Amino acid sequence: MTWSYRHRKLLIVGVLVFFITGIFSFLLIKNLKIDSSKKETPTVLTASKEETEKEKLEEEKEEVYYQVDIKGQVQAPGIYTVKEGSRVIDVIRLAGDITGEADTSVLNLSKKVSDEMVIIVYSKEEVANFSTVKEEEKKEQELCVQKDEDSLRNDACITESEITAITDTKISINTATLEELMSLDGIGEAKAKAIIEYREENGPFTSIDELLDVSGIGEGLFANIKENITI
Q1: How far apart are CA 48 and CA 61, in angstroms?
Q2: Nearest of 92, 91, 71 to residue 83 by alpha carbon
Q3: How many Cα atoms are found within 13 Å in the side-chain-facing hemisphere of 61?
Q4: pLDDT > 70 fraction of the chain, expressed in percent and rounded
Q5: pLDDT of residue 45
Q6: Chain-centre distance of CA 82, in angstroms?
Q7: d(CA 83, CA 196)
Q8: How many CA within 13 A on the CB side of residue 28?
Q9: How far is 80 from 69, CA to CA, in rounded Å?
Q10: Res 18: pLDDT
Q11: What tens digit of pLDDT does each residue of 123-132 get?
Q12: Which of 115, 112, 114, 88 is nearest to 102 (CA)?
């Protein structure tokens, strides 16, 4: 009888100890997790702060703008302000797009604009007579340049170096359009098409002398245009 009572008493005490130990262990593990979470929090906050500051700096970065003058066959010719990285097509859209008479075959619409750039959108008639148009432009530009110290100076004019660059511009027989090739003296539509067909069938020209291999291009014609062409 006495032994049975003691046995039960020990059993109850053992259960209570086990239960208390379990609760203590649970609380200890929980506290360790909380402490670990608290230690990681500052790192997360620091990373978040750095990202915020980076985004702020990017937003505050000063944007660059260009002034571009567009003329010719557009709905509203004039001077437009565009962001750095804008392209010719963006300026044309700002100007209300091209007119029904425009021909953009001689323009690089994807070219990035620069400050003080002048974009001229030619008409179909002007492109058909491209060599004549370019010669008239050259004459106008030459008249605009200051001749000497006693002459009037117009800073909005194209400079002498720019005129030289325009004068020295040659037509690439590897990339020229049909209209550009036809602007060469003595090259009509048939010969221009023959040049394009030749490079499509045989690959790019490796020298301007190879143009003599094109049907319809003789030595006399080649002599007339060789100073105005390049590969």
Answers
A1: 20
A2: 91
A3: 9
A4: 62
A5: 46
A6: 13
A7: 37
A8: 6
A9: 6
A10: 72
A11: 888 887 766 7
A12: 88
SS3 of 90-109: the string is: HHHHHCCCECCCECCCCCCC
Q: Is the pLDDT of residue 37 over 50?
A: yes
> pTM for the whole thing?
0.42
What distance in Å separates the CA atoms of residue 173 and residue 184, rounded to the nearest whole number?
11
| 133 token code pair | 């148009």
Angle, alpha carbons 119-124-127 (nearest 5°):
65
pLDDT tens figures, 45-81: 455 666 666 666 666 567 889 999 999 999 999 999 9
Q: What one-character DSSP code corresponds to residue 166?
A: H
Q: Could you tell me if 226 and 218 are in contact, meaning their C-beta atoms sit under 8 angstroms apart?
A: no
User: CB count, 10 Å around CB of 162?
Assistant: 12
Round to whole Å and give the CA distance between 160 and 92: 27
**Which pair of structure tokens corresponds to residue 134?**
């370019």
Cβ atoms of 41 and 35 within 8 Å: the answer is: no
Between CA 154 and CA 164 the distance in angstroms is: 18
